[in-house]
């Protein structure tokens, strides 16, 4: 038996090729929204989304002591030397990712969006300041320990989905009933 015969991938690919575009979309949405019935992903996603949303609102609306969209865009492009499209995408991903997590709609995609934001924040701002946050006010900036915790939550949510109390779970249940 050769390797191609031993692998299930060709059979899966052939089955997917046989689907209509609409069936492929339904399959992709089902894969995206399928979740466990456990409560722990619900706790993780609401916590992570609830922590990230105020940061996003600082950037977009200037709430919670933030600078708002135009000043944040200026800081990203002038100080961090990001292209405008990357800066706008980062702001958008943080907002949409946080809301996605809070509501549990497309949790995996929302978690990945927050993961991208966390990795970007570490690489562009926090890495030079080391591991620890600046609790004592003695460092020039904040370290990346918070970001690692958020990334661990992102990985767990990307694997498990939104959990019991999520829109994803409701979508999964409605698919099972139909």
Explain how this protein is built.
The structure is a single chain. The chain is mainly alpha-helical and about 180 residues long. It has one domain (about 35-175). The protein has 9 helices and no strands. The longest helix is centred in the N-terminal third of the chain and has 22 residues, at about 40-60. It is elongated and about 55 Å long. The N and C termini lie far apart (about 40 Å).
Give me a quick take on this structure.
With 178 residues, the chain is an all-alpha fold. It is built from 9 helices and no strands.
| Helix share bin | over 70%
User: How many strands, which pairing sense, and closed or not: the largest β-sheet?
Assistant: none
Morphology: elongated
Give me the count of strands: 0
Radius of gyration, Cα only, in angstroms? 20 Å
* Span between termini: 40 Å
SS class: mainly alpha
What's the number of helices? 9
Low-pLDDT segments? none
Our count of domains comes out at 1
What is the succession of H and E elements? HHHHHHHHH
Average pLDDT confidence is 89
Portion in strands: under 5%
């Amino acid at each position: 038996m050769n390797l191609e015969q031993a692998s299930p991938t060709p059979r899966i690919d052939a089955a997917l090729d046989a689907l209509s575009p609409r069936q492929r979309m339904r399959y992709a949405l089902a894969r995206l929204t399928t979740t466990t019935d456990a409560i722990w992903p619900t706790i993780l996603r609401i916590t992570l989304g609830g922590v990230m949303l105020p940061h996003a609102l600082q950037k977009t609306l200037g709430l919670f002591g933030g600078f708002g969209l135009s000043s944040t865009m200026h800081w990203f492009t002038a100080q961090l030397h990001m292209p405008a499209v990357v800066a706008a995408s980062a702001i958008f991903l943080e907002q949409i990712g946080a809301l996605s997590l809070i509501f549990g709609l497309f949790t995996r995609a929302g978690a990945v969006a927050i993961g991208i934001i966390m990795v970007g924040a570490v690489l562009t701002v926090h890495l030079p300041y080391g591991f620890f946050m600046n609790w004592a006010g003695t460092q020039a900036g904040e370290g990346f320990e918070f970001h690692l915790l958020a990334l661990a939550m992102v990985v767990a949510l990307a694997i498990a989905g939104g959990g019991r109390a999520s829109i994803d779970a409701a979508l999964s249940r409605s698919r099972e009933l139909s």
